Amino acid sequence: MPNTSRLFFALWPNDETRQALAQLNRHIPAKKQVDPHNLHVTLVFLGQVDAETESVIEQLAADITVPPFELTFDNLNYWDRPKVLCLTCRQDVPEEAMLLTSALTEAAVNCGLKIDTRTYTPHITLARHARHLPDVKIEPIIWRAEAFCLVQSCSEQAGVNYKVIQQWPLLKTSKPLA
Fold first, then answer.
1. Cα–Cα distance, 35 to 18 (Å, whole number)
2. 175 assigned to some structural domain
3. Of 34, 143, 145, 157, which has the fewest CB atoms closer than 10 Å, so is most exposed?
4. pLDDT tens column, 149-162
5. How many angstroms separate the CA atoms of 141 and 20, rounded?
6. How many CA atoms, within 13 angstroms, populate the side-chain half-sphere of residue 166?
């Protein structure tokens, strides 16, 4: 597809969270660990998007109002099909996170994009091409979501690199969530 970008919406970690994730990754025996600067929580994967659709989806994203929330990543998982090690949340996902992913999905669908319809599961991919779940004790990592962003996945000679295109704050609101 000419003039398209591979895009997704994500939560991007603050420095403290990124350092905690990088520290955890040092204890995980895996050949293909995700570079610390690429660690994130995908909200909605958009796929290949042309510039016009990207502009529209950015405008729609700017109108989304959801309060900040926290995710507690306290469970190391091995997902066999994609062969990844990832962190997930044992606790229920906060309503605000579900509202955010729902609003972003709706914006993408309104732009004509085909979006994965599986139930949203927040996760942080730590390693790819994994073969099993290592026996590693982990301390919970609290992710304070105060903004969400549009990210471009760029294939480069050294591998994939993620670049934040735009970021929007999550705003405290007095409006009811539902």
1. 10
2. no
3. 157
4. 999 999 887 788 99
5. 7
6. 11
